[in-house]
Fold this protein.
Amino acid sequence: MSSALPEHGAPWSDLEARMQDLAKGDVKWRDGRTGMYIFNAGEDVARVKKAAYAMFSEENGLGPAAFPSLAQMEREVVAAGMSLLNAPPGAAGAMSSGGTDSIFLAVKTARDHARAKRGMTGALNIVAPSTVHPAFDKACMVMDIEIRRIPVKDYLADVTAMEAAIDAGTLMIVGSAPCFPFGLIDPIEALGELAERKKVWLHVDACVGAYIAPFVRMNGADLPPFDFAVPGVWSISGDLHKYGYASKGASTVFFRTEALREFMTFDAGPWPLGRMITPSLAGTRPGGAIAAAWAVMNHLGVAGYKQKQGEVVAARETIEAGVKRLGFQIFGKPQLGIVSFAHPDVDALRIYAQMHKRGWFTAALVEPRALHLMLSPKHNEVAGEYLADLEAALREVTDEQFAPRYAG
């Protein structure tokens, strides 16, 4: 197959058919067959975000003067996120292209603030639990910062061990709400107390939790404090294209004060056009992502999100009960949309392979070996189907693993 640009263009009808053919090998996510990458909140949400994205697909968030509509939508999205996360008066934030981008911006902001306000000029480090997202490693690679990953205790950040790792070069400490591997919320209150006592920046990575945890709490769950309600928290990352159900890529990053957020700004130049000042690393920013996030948030509102997130929790509770019945053990006590579990007698990765053969595309942990699900509202419809396939996969792997072996 040639990779050269065709000499003559093709009509959309031909291209659409070719694209549909290319997609035949993709996971059947619309049927709820994936536990990662996709956050399927139903056709109602899909219609809204597709239409909104298409309406602003050519507009560029780089130019707020040219497109005040996008600037206004971003302000409203950020304000909504801050209200959900108990931000105090004077807090500030911005949209970004995804969780890695938001984390990068938080680290950059903390670094520049430390240099300007804390007099930190030497080698810098970040102290984080071992379960923290690799985006922090990426940020540290780019900015020549050491990351110190501290083993967890009962799958949660070990605050005492993290304190022992803090020194004069510690720029930031991190907690997750929740961590991706286990779906558990780190002890943010204790980390906040530590941050205040040691006078270091505390970032909460709520890329998974920012747009589900507040509604799960509204639905009656007793969640531990994890946001700006904890005084020591200085910044939070939260992805709109996860449990905010916006189109990719859309995330948010928030700061306790506008004075902190100012250190996120990039002021580059001069060049022939003068200075280029942008709120984030990106220049061009897809208007469709901003518009889709705004549209979905206003389409669902508090009541809609409570319903969708209630469906996520219901799916998790159904699957938890089912896997326990099959002899699996769940890691910790998840309260949101992620659950990880392993069988004491059967290799989880062998079960994973069998589930993949049955059309399920999910994640798996390698240390410890476990099955991993990040659930969406759609999974509440197919939880029984998943459990039936899991039971069959477990039976097949068990039969293989414990089948009698006879010497020839």
Summary: The chain has two domains: 50-296, 301-394. The domain at 50-296 is CATH 3.40.640.10 (Aspartate Aminotransferase; domain 2). Residues 287-325 form the longest helix (39 residues). The chain is about 40% helix and 15% strand.
